[in-house]
Structure formats: structure tokens, C-alpha cells
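Incident log entry.

Two folding requests arrived from the same account within the same minute. Monitoring flagged them as a possible duplicate submission, but the sequences differ. Recording both here for audit purposes.

Request one:
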Amino acid sequence: MPDALPLCARLPIAIHIEPLLAALARVPADAWQPHFNTGYFSGDWSGVALIAPANAVLELAPGSGEPKPTKVFAGDPAWQAALNQIDAPIRSARLLRLGPGAAIREHADFDLAGPDSDLRIHLPLRSHEAVEFLLEGHLVPMRPGECWFLDLSRPHRVDNPSPHDRIHLVLDCQRSPWLLQAIAAGAPTTPTLGLSRGRRAFAEFQALIAADANLADALLAIEEHKQFIETVVALGQQHGHAFSEEDVQSVMRQSRQRWQQQWMA
């Protein structure tokens, strides 16, 4: 039985980002293609495939065929130099761009959930301090030049309220002893995960509800799920606490999971 993987881990790998940024600047503008999961995002979420399965319907889409380098990858040795630091079979490599004001809605990549599934690695190239990558409600503090493993079989979403592109080099790798060891070595030194702006605001609103029995009773009287969430968000805004419906749903889901775990223990 393999050891359980952490939620995420910053890998002890030094990435020389300057050559990658130079290579990124050489990517043709028409190489960027809209992401195929159109129901999962708003704004610009686009990508460039560097390595893609031969049988993939789209270069950015998953597939089970033999990984093949694309023209963009073959045309610039900087990508190969970076990927040579990863001692694991790489099944796909993509540049993924989240444009200014864009957001990826919460979802889970269930194809990454199996005991022999690929492991997803993120190498941030461009970002901004306002960008929030949330994994099970936790803020993952990824910075350009770092290398991260993320268990994206768990719920996650990304918000980019900044005026700048956020671009990551994203790898799907087969499991290897080297990669599993790098994840195990990186987990203890991974920065503490925080809470997003919305989750902090929602925690403040929860404290307000706990202190106001009338407001709590009014919310408990709402039976319809969607109406309840919309009312909570509206009340939060009225009291100066700005958070989203996804923040509320995430907290409710995690509370339900904790209850189920306690009940099954």
C-alpha cells in the first residue's frame, strides 16, 4: 500500500527561471489556445502544449497515448533543459495562462485520484501577489521559480484579480521513486498554507452570526440550498464582509467531510 500523498509540497528543486521567461517570450501569440474545459472558468484561461499524448483529441486535453513533443517544445531548448530536472516520465507538459480578472471555478481532477495516477507538478513562471490558488480552501503560496506538487484530485480553484497574466508550466508525470522522494522531502519544508481573502471574510461573518441569535435563526429557517447561500453572501456584503458563493460552498463541504470522518471513526 503506497504512502498517502500530502495535499501539496514545494519540491526541493532549483528552477532557473530566467531562461524559461525568455523562452516564454518567444512563444508565438497564435500558439495560445483556449482551455477545453469551457464550463470551468471565466475570462482568459488558455494554454500551449509542449508535450501531449499522441492520441489526445486536442493538444491541451488528456490522453493515454505516447507523449509527443510539439513544435513549440522542439523549437526551444530551454524547455527541455527545465524538464531534464524532473526524473520521472512526463506524460504532458503545458503552459497554462490565466488572464487578468479571470477565474477557474472550483473543481476536482478525478483522473488524478487513483493509486497509480499521474502526479501534477506546477512550475510558476509569472504571477502576482493578488493571485489566489485555493486547494481544499487553503491558499497555496506558489511563487515564480518554485516547483510544487499539488493533489488536484481534491477541490481547487484559482482567482486572478490582478492586471497581469498568471502563467504556470504544468507537468503530468508518471510516478517514479525520485519524484515520490522529492515530494516526501519537500513536504516538511513547504510554507504554511493560509486562507484566501474570501475565507478570512467568511470566518469574520461566521463570528458575527455566532453572536447574533436572531440572524442565525433567520438563516436556519431558509430550507432551499441555493437561496441559503445567496442570502449568506448578501448578508455578508451588508455587514462589510466580502466573500463568494464558492467560499460558502467550500466551507459547507469541508464541514460535511469532517462530520463524515468523525462519524465513521
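Request two (distinct sequence, not a duplicate):
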Amino acid sequence: MSESLDADFAAFCAAHPTRSVWVGGHRWEYIDAGAGGPPLILLPGGFGVPATSFRYIPALADNRRVIAVGYPPGLDIMADLCDGLAALIDALGMERAWLLGGSASGFVVQAFVRRHPSRVFGLILAQSGAPRPARARLSRACAGLLNTLPMPLIFGLLRLSIAADLRGDSDGRRFWRGHFAEVLAQQCRAALVSRFRLAADFDANYQIVAQHKHDACRVAIIESAGDGMIGPAERAALRALYPAAEVYTLVGGHNDSVERPGAQIALIRAICASGRCATIQHSTFSIQPSAA
């Protein structure tokens, strides 16, 4: 599988080069594929880059426009990142779009829909969680360390974290360990620090998000029953923030979204094609991931 994934990734990058545009004084990277609407914007989880979504983009772009984006370094306040994303949507000629926020990017999606609700046709929160004010201190501490430690030490620690999270000798895990190690090697200090400062901002300042208006767009939640990063309490807290959302529960863990994405891709396609998401309350579906 590793050789297949290596070949698939190389072929994807050749066919879908990463582009860039300057908006609001920041350089945004993105991959733009497909046509049709409403368009779907994929936001990166963790330290992902647009090409990390190489298994999602072709599968989702066969019947709609799909844009995968990366965050510019230095945008470490959530409101500023949301305003920059809105400016990017303008620059790419879109009015409204579906937004998919996976893992940490679920925080960005939740902040964006409250700051720019008219730009969101629907939002999908995948393996993500609700704000936790107590977690903000840890994120700030991580940002502080990343801002002071020597870069070789930072890269070494982050590579160890990736190896621990994706431990094992399967071909797929070897591919993803190599991919994320390469992505990290391309990151500057400002980009790494920004990720943790954004998380701290979300946790500290968005704890009353349930009082904001978000009922003008459709909402779907995809969770994983065996998710070790987003536990049952946080998943319940997220559902409580969106009582009209349709909730889907996949069998598997947090990393299945990259290692075994077949079921999640099929689910995203169905959600974007359906108009039901805002009308069904707390419907839960158990779906066995495919081998794709």
C-alpha cells in the first residue's frame, strides 16, 4: 500500500499543483479542483497542507468545486484567520460554500460560521470538538515553547509525536509518518506557533458559542466511536452546541480519516448532496469504514 500511496500522491500533486494568492497581506496556499456547487472548502487538520487531502479532493470534486486550503503563517488570532478565509473566498469568486473542518480545523469552522454566517451554505465538523477553556493554558504553553526552543529540537519532538501517534509497520502508516514528517520540515516557526495560539484563542474566547446564531446554515457532525483524541464528553458537548445537527458515528478512531477515508468520503458526498442536515435532530448512524 505504501508504494501505491506514494504513487497516488505523486500523481495527484502533478495533476493538482498547489497555488497561492495574496489576500489581506497574507499568502494563502490552496488546491482548486472540479466544478459545480455549492463548492466545498476543505480546511487542514493538525499540521496538514492542502495536498494532505489528496484522497479526498478527486473523490469529492467529480460533481462540485472543491478547494483545499492551508493556513498562512502568522495568523494566530481566530478572528483574523476567519477574515482572511472570507477574503480568500472572495478572491476565488465564491459567495457561499460548504466548509469541512477536520480535527483542529473544526475550531476554525465554528468560529467562521459565527463571524461570517452569510458565507456558509453548510458546515461539516469531522472528528472535532467543542471549546474547552481549561485547555487554553496548555496550548499557550506549547506556543511559548515552540517560540523559544531551537528548531532542530522542535522538529525532533514533533517527529517523535507523529511516530507515536502513527506507530506500527503497516505500509499505510509508514507513508503517513513520512508525509507528516515532510510537511513538518517545511513549516517555519511562525506557522507552528500560530496553530497552538489559534487553538488557545478558540478555547479561551469561544466558550459561549451556543448563544451565537448558526441556524441559517446546515450542520452535520461526523464522529468516530473509538476516537482517543476527542473523547465521549467532548463529542457530547459538541452535539449540545448544535441540537439541530445530523450526527454520524463512524466505527474506528481519529486517524481513520486519513488512513481509511473511504467511509468518510462517501458520507461527506451524501451530506453535501442532501438537504436534510438542518432538520434531523441527533440521528446517529454507525458506518463500517471501507478498506479504501
